[in-house]
Amino acid sequence: VSVLPNPTTGNVLITGIDKPKVEIYNTVGKTIKKIEHANSFSLGDFPPGIYVLRILDKDGKTIYYDKITKQ
């Protein structure tokens, strides 16, 4: 699974999995956005900073967990 670009100014593309579930957390662990069945999403409405991105497969298994930076 790849997440591009990182850092980003807004739009993010997920490759290597079809229609994943995406969860975005702030640095204190609070869920700030959940997206179902999307291979792209936008961080455009978020202030610049570091976020945690979790991508889950159709069975709910975490397949990607890493930081993403919004510029």
Keywords for this entry:
71 residues, mainly beta, 4-stranded antiparallel β-sheet, 3-stranded antiparallel β-sheet, 7 strands, globular
Provide the residue-averaged pLDDT.
96
Low-pLDDT runs: none
What is the CA-atom radius of gyration, in angstroms? 11 Å
N-to-C SSE string, H for helix and E for strand: EEEEEEE
- Helical stretch count? 0
Give a short account of the largest sheet.
4 strands, antiparallel
Strand line-up in the sheet with most strands: 4-3-6-7
C-alpha end-to-end distance: 22 Å
Silhouette:
globular
| SS class | mainly beta
Give the amount of beta strand, in percent: over 45%
DSSP, total strands: 7
Q: What is the helix fraction of residues, given as a range?
A: under 10%
Fold and architecture overview:
- The protein is mainly β and 71 residues long.
- It is 0% helix and 54% strand.
- The chain contains no helices and 7 strands.
- The strands form 2 sheets. The protein has a 4-stranded antiparallel sheet with strand order 4-3-6-7, with no helix packed on it.
- It is globular and about 30 Å long.
- The mean pLDDT is 96.
